[in-house]
Each structure stands twice: as C-alpha cells, then as structure tokens.
Amino acid sequence: MAKSLEKIFLTTAATLFFAACGDDASSSAPENGEGGAILVEESSSSSAVLFGSSSDVAQSSSVTQPSSSAEILSSNSVADTNGSSSSIADTSVAIKADTTKITYALKPFDGPLSNPHKGFTVPTGGAWTFVPEFEYGPYGSLNNRAWDLVSYGSGYQQWNKLNPAKGVYDWTELEKLLNALAEHNMTYALRVLPYTPSFIKSDFPPQEDYDWTPPFVYEMGAKKIQIDLRGTEYHAYAPVWDDPIYLQAAKEFAKALAEKYDGDPRIEYIDVRTFGEWGEWHTSHILGSEMPADSVLKDMLDYYASVFKKTQLVLPSNGFGDVYTHALNLGITKRDDGFIGIPGRPDTLLRAYNANLPTIAENIAGYRTMLTYDDLIPGGSQKWTAERWVDAITTAHLTYYVLDQDNDCGYYFYKDNKALADSMSKVIGYNFTVTRAELLIIAGADNAASTAGKSADTTVGNAATNTLSITVKNTGVAPCFFDVYLVAEFVDSTGAAIAQLGKTIRIPKASFKDGASQQFTFGSDVPVGEANLATQPGVSVALSLYESEDAYKSGKNSTVRFDNDGLQGNNKLLLKSR
Predict the structure, then answer these.
(1) Which of 501, 532, 530, 500 is nearest to 438 (CA)?
(2) Are 64 and 443 in contact, with CB atoms under 8 Å apart?
C-alpha cells in the first residue's frame, strides 16, 4: 500500500508540475520566469504538452465541472529504504483535489487593425496634417478614414533647413511634427533630402528651389556640375556626389542627427539619403550627374552605422549589388520605391527579409496616377490592380508600405479599396492571433494531520494553482522586429486589472516568425486561506502586449493589439468563455 501511495503521489505531483511549467523550445524562445513558450506547427497540436492529446482539448467543454474528487488515504506506515515498513503512530493524510478547465471562445477582430512598428503610412508633411483645416487629415472635412490604417507618418525634410550653417542645426519644425505624431500614437520615418529635380520648373531656376544641399557646403569649396533635366530643355546644377568636402559635410550632419535622434522612440526608421535625386542613390533624370563609386557608397553606410546604434537605418531604392550586400551586413535594411509599376521589384526585397530585417516599399507613383498606366512593358509602367498590390505585400514580406504617396493622403485609394485595405492591415508585418486559450484551475486540498504530541486541530493546507495556456500564431507576412512583452492578468467586470497571473514573458525581436505558432503558459499558486481570483464572480482573464516591461509596470496602456474579438479600450484582450 505504501509503494502504491508513493507512486500515486509522485504521478500527481508530476502532473501539477508540467501543468504549471512550459518548456523552452529553443534559444530564441520567449524569456520568462514562470511559464514558457513552445514553437508548434499548428495550434491544435500544441495542447498535448499541458493537457494530453489534442483530441482531448478539442472535445472539452467551455467549463469542465470539477472532476470526481480523488481522495487518497495513507496507511499508517511508510516504506523505508530497504522496502520494509515502519510505523508512524496516529498519522492520517487526506488529499482532495478538484480540477476545472475553462476553454475560451476566440474570434477574429472585426475591422482594420493597426499596430506599432509595422503597417501603412501616408505623407505627413508637418504638424499641420492634424489641423481640421487640412481636409485630407484625420480631422478634415472629408472624414478620411484611411487614417484608421496608418500606424506611422513619413515624409522628407530638407538638409539645408535642418543644417542652415556649419555646425548649426534647427530641429524646430521637425520637433513639432514628431510631437504631433506622438500625440496620435504614431512615429515618423525620416528622409533628409539633399536634392530634388521635381522643382526644376524653368531654365536655371533659383538653386534653393531644388538643390537642398546647404549653401555653406559650396562656400567651403564643394564642387557642383551643370545638368540637363531629362525630357525638358531645362538646365540646372547638382552636387558632385563624391566631392570630399561634400562627403565630409554629409557625415557631420549624420553625426549631429544621430546625437539628436538615435534611439528616439518617435523615429521609426531613417533612410540614408546622401546621394542622388531625392536621395534615392540614382541620377536618372539629371543628365550629366553621376553616382559615386561603390567604395564611396559603402563608406557612407559604414559611417552611418557607426553613429546610429539604435535606430533602424534604411538603404534607399537604388542601392543594389555589392552595396546592398554591404548594407545587410551592417544591419541596414532595404526599401524599394518601384512597386507595382515595375515587374519583379517585390522580389528584390527578399534578401533583406532573409537577413531577418524589415522590408519597406512605396509604389512607383501615386494611386490615381498608376490607374492611368498602359501596362506596356518595356517602355511603360504597370497599372495598379488589387491583385498586384496584394502580391507585392506578400511576396516581399513587407513590414512597412506607403498606402499612397499623393497629397490626398490615401483618401481616394481607401475610398476605392476599403475592404481590401482593411484586410491587408492584418497581413502586412506581424499579426498576433490567439488561436487557443485554456485556464486550468486545481483547487487546494486541506491536509488534516494529527500526530503524536500535536493538537488534533493542526491543519496543513495545499495551495490552489491556476495555469493559463495559450497558443498565439503570427498570421502576418513578417516577424515582429522589436521586443514584445506578454502579460496575463485577472481583471474585474470593468476590465480593470486585479492581479497578474504568472510572470511577464519577453519575446525577443525577430524571434516570432511569420506563419509560426508559439505556446505560452502562465502559472501561479494561491496561498492557503486566500480566495482564488480565478473562481470569483465577475473576474475574467485578460491578455496584453507591451513594447517594454516598464510600460506595463508603470500602468500604461498596452500598445500592441491582438487580432481577436474582445479588445478593450486599453488594448487588452478580454478572454470570454464559450
């Protein structure tokens, strides 16, 4: 009897242990103190880790009533190391454990879903974007709902405005824009342009109209060259891109920019826009101007990587070949601005995706302009179609995409393609969907023990345990490229937090791959004599995702949202039983 009892007790203890603790599937698995994560092929197969076979879970009801109580009574003897028994007088042990399993109903979120550090952007030229007078803005008269999809702003700044004199920097207007975006929970993708042929509207127009290299650079001796604007009879000037004085001025600006903004949470990413028209590393429209040798381009990338230690850097559209390889080796990702119009351009970003870096894209022109294209290749450009748009996002595993680059800020695009755009907001970048969630409650058992020399009413209690097991799938087309912190809590009927369930789990950046599922467990004990929150009326379980553990600890609302029905105003996901 003693050996039988010992075997039953050890089996029960092992069951409780594995129910409360998850395995760490790999070195890249989320980090946590209590509970863990397991990478699984499909959500249904992962359930065997905690609750037996997957079929057992599939057949479970929403709330499994307490199991028939297992009452285990010991004999008055225990086995010694030799297998014989020795008597322990007046000892009796009773263990009673009731188990309840709650399975939660899970449905997709209804509507578009924007999330940080991924998704769509529209041009945001300044803080004026958010004034009611701007009709295409989020508060404008047109009620432009394209902003429901926008997760970050983007646009260009002029080098000569930010750096008007040697050693002098004016961040005033940029700061206004960054603060305005931050007030609307958006970041900014920064491009500082040295040159734009868009404003060459006549023969030899004022140089400041199109050449945004600061005048002091030329005053210091940097050379410029006369150019012809392709397709016109206009003449103008352009910097000599490999002039050593120009290159040194560009590096000094990069250093000042890094000192001001490297690691600034308001900045999403920064393009290295030192060379060519629009800073795109080409001179396609300014005849007579030539790009520098690859060695010069690589040197500039090296310098940017040396001064920017935190903020993501981006190689512009026309950085290809060995320069592209060099950028990836430095952790600098790639953007492409020829989408839809030029066949095969999405494929060019696969190298960045395979290097575990976010990919960025912009269409070759504005949406309404692309609708007029003739589809004649070569010699023309492909027109915009819904099929090509979806293919571009999925083929390139895009994390970021310009929704529309025209000044109408996506208004006409969204008006024509609302349902498609809403659905693709859950495809671009990462997209976390809870596919399974179960709470296992094991009630505490009171052990009534009476022993010689002790009063008969001495009571020793066993703590109750709560174990939440969830499976999350990344249904987007890219990994999550920032650390994310997963929290489970007991909440009251208003959604307010009562207590944390288990410990916070950190999921390291780029470790949660697109298409992958991971299982997470949160376990906690309930001290003897205390009420178990899991069984109290009006108490529910909520899940939330944070960009930092400090944000959770300081009581801030979560910023990352699950793609599930039940999202609260504070972005927490309230789990509902079936």
Answers:
(1) 501
(2) no
Task: List domains and CATH numbers for the chain.
Answer: 2-73+91-110+432-577 (no CATH), 119-195+241-424 (3.20.20.80)
Place of tokens 């693709």: 424
Picking from 163, 358, 147, the residue whose alpha carbon sits closest to that of residue 251 is: 163
For residue 95, give both structure tokens.
Answer: 């263990």
Strands 235-239 and 150-158: unpaired
The answer to whether the pTM exceeds 0.70 is yes
Q: What is the three-class DSSP state of 191?
A: strand
- Residue 578, pLDDT score: 75
Q: Is 174 helix (H, G, I), strand (E, B) or coil?
A: helix
Of 136 and 407, the structure prediction assigns the larger pLDDT to: 136
- The model's pLDDT over 321-366, given as tens digits with 9 standing for 90+, comes to 999 999 999 999 999 999 999 999 999 999 999 999 999 999 999 9
At residue 73, the 3 state secondary structure works out as strand
Radius of gyration of the chain (CA): 31
- Concatenated DSSP letters for 453-503? TS-TT-EEEPPEEEEEEEEEEE-SSS---S-EEEEEEEE-TTS-EEEE-S-
State the burial class of residue 57 (Cβ atoms within 10 Å of its Cβ: 0-12, 13-18, 19+).
buried
Tens digits of per-residue pLDDT, 1-60?
443 434 333 333 333 333 333 333 333 445 444 455 544 433 333 332 232 222 332 223
